[in-house]
Amino acid sequence: MSRFIQSFNRREAEQNCLSLLQLCNTFSKLKQIHSHLLKSGLHNNPLVLTKFSTTCSELNNIDYAASFVFSKEAETHLYDTFLFNAIIRAYAQTNHTKQNAIFAYNRMLRYSIKPNKFTYPFLLKASAGLLGLNLGKQIHGAVVKYGFDTDLYVQNTTVHMYCCCAGGIEFARNMFDEMPKSSAVSWSAMIGGYVRFGRSTEAVELFRKMQFDGVRPDEITMVSVLSACADLGALELGKWVQRYIDKEGIPRSEELCNALIDMFAKCGDIDEAIEVFWNMNEKTIVSWTSVIVGLAMHGRGKEAVDFFDEMRGVGMKPDGVAFIGMLTACSHAGLVEQGCSYFDSMVNEFSIVPKIEHYGCMVDMFSRAGHLSKALEFVQEMPIEPNPVIWRSLIYGCRSHGELELSESISKRLIGDEPMHGSNYVLLSNVYAKMFKYEKKTKIRKVMEKKGIKKVPGCTMIELNNEIYEFVAGDKSHDQYEDIYKMVDEMGRAIKKAGFVATTSDVLLDIDEEDKEDTLNRHSEKLAIAFSLLNSPPRTMIRIVKNLRVCTDCHGATKFISKVYEREIVVRDRNRFHHFRDGLCSCKDFW
Fold first, then answer.
1. What's 339-374 look like in SS3?
2. CA quadruple 226, 232, 235, 241: dihedral positive or negative?
3. Higher pLDDT, 291 or 414
4. How many C-beta atoms surround the C-beta of residue 558 within 10 A?
5. Which of 123, 152, 411, 588 is deepest in the core (most CB within 10 A)?
6. What letter does residue 131 receive in the DSSP assignment?
7. Are 338 and 559 in contact (CB under 8 A)?
8. CA pseudo-torsion sign 458, 464, 466, 469
């Protein structure tokens, strides 16, 4: 009878402690419960310790639980798989101590406690967060060893892990191809992996296969596909995704709406992005920032300023990303005084410590406006070391505003800092062209050849008739390449007749002027425009995406093409959008 009473009392104490933990919402209460469970003799009860660890995790203090559970006095032979899973899961969900999930797992094995199929998804998520491919492979090996490799949840998290680690995407695809794919989760993991590593074309191709196989995508899939569309500049596909979301009744969450805003802004339709924004029920800082950054990219600086002021008016506190958008907008719109004011406000009013991106925006703004002494002074007074991007902004500004000797000296400094970075040599070569120092320009080309340094090839993408086409300079891989080159030649004659004069100084090759013009005519954006003129109805808009800055010659040529062929041409280059219409470009300046 006494044993029965003792057993009843233990169960009652256990249930009482579990109830207290369920209601616990502060760390001070947790410490009181900790004392209670010690007095109640529950310090080795695995069920109570599991709940205790989970509660600590919810209060962002899993270390407190671990220090107790793994103390020297602990009778670990009483512990079970569920307790270890709770601790592993808690550490896997942290931002900075994910490695402790691995340590807990190793301790679990040392204590001869067998993992189950719920152990490995947490470990794989920790490995994904640590970006450790070799670690992930080891965990995958353990999954196979213990026979959990056929569990769909484990398979999905394994694909996700490989998709997060550099060098792991092919392992992910091999596993994805071999597993059952009835769940949208599997497809979302693989599509998201392709997007994460900039392989957006493959992400879109896989999404189309998902449609063909009849698997209904979920919100996470749609966010990834919209990110791929944004990367590719695939506006028509993005619009189709928007229609599909509405047709299938997929809830427009904040994240999905933000992805739509980002897609429309990066695909060149900033007005549609704004419409999506105003139709949102709840707008987050990400929503506001996406529109501000979008307006900045499109050169609509004054509207970005209005949006920013309205955001503050509704009580939304701007973050560092919002200020990057604002400073970029001021830079492209030539709003130097307002840009300085926003930078001061960021530091003094909102106590945001400027990052290298903020300093870069300020240098870019001063340089574009021709305030080169101010830009140089700003760089010299920065509390952090300027990066190559900042120096290049200063070089572009010096070159644009005639300070060629300063541009030359900074370019030489950059080559000293980054002797294998091709763009530094191209910058110096272009400076020498402006200075008419053609012998030095030729010498730069020879140095590049000797060191085996090559320019990053220009690449332009265009979406036409639900297909994405890619062109590189001098490309002859397209089925229509003969017609495309004939169209390029026709374009050249037409714009020359209209008054266009080629800018050959940026050509690095040591060839005569006529050959230089021919080289410029083979630039990837001109091939893409020629392809569009051949395959799209007259007077329709042309949208292209370039991986590099548009060169001076192509920028000038596109102005004339827009006028001669009566086309609006939207070009997204590495830095911003250019809207060409009737022989003019939306940008205030061009470097």
1. HHHHHHHHHHCCCCCCCHHHHHHHHHHHHHCCCHHH
2. negative
3. 291
4. 25
5. 123
6. T
7. no
8. negative
Supply the DSSP symbol for 509.
S
Dihedral sign, Cα of residue 116, residue 117, residue 118, residue 120: positive
- Which residue type sits at 168? G
| CA 261 to chain CA centroid, nearest Å | 15
For residues 188 and 223, is the Cβ–Cβ distance under 8 A? no
Res. 434 pLDDT band, cuts 50 70 90: confident
Distances (CA, A) of 181 to 118, 187, 212, 308: 20, 7, 12, 44
pLDDT for 136-159, tens place per residue? 999 999 999 999 999 999 999 999
Strand ranges for 147-303 from DSSP E = none
Say how far apart CA 398 and CA 591 lie, in whole Å. Answer: 10
Summarize pLDDT for 341-376 with one digit per residue, the tens: 999 999 999 999 999 999 999 999 999 999 999 999
* The one-letter amino acid at 352: I
The amino acid sitting at 489 is D
Look at strands 584-585 and 577-581 and give their pairing: antiparallel
Q: Rounded to an integer, what distance in angstroms lies between the CA atom of residue 543 and that of residue 235? A: 9
End-to-end CA distance of the chain: 92
- Predicted TM-score (pTM) of the model is 0.86
Confidence band of 579 (pLDDT split at 50, 70, 90): very high
Q: For residues 317 and 131, what is the distance between their CA atoms, to the nearest angstrom? A: 32
Closest CA to 168 of 201, 138, 145: 138
Instruction: Tell whether the torsion through CA atoms of 431, 437, 443 and 449 is positive or negative.
Output: positive
The greatest distance separating any two alpha carbons of the chain, rounded to the nearest whole angstrom, comes to 109
The average confidence (pLDDT) of the chain is 90
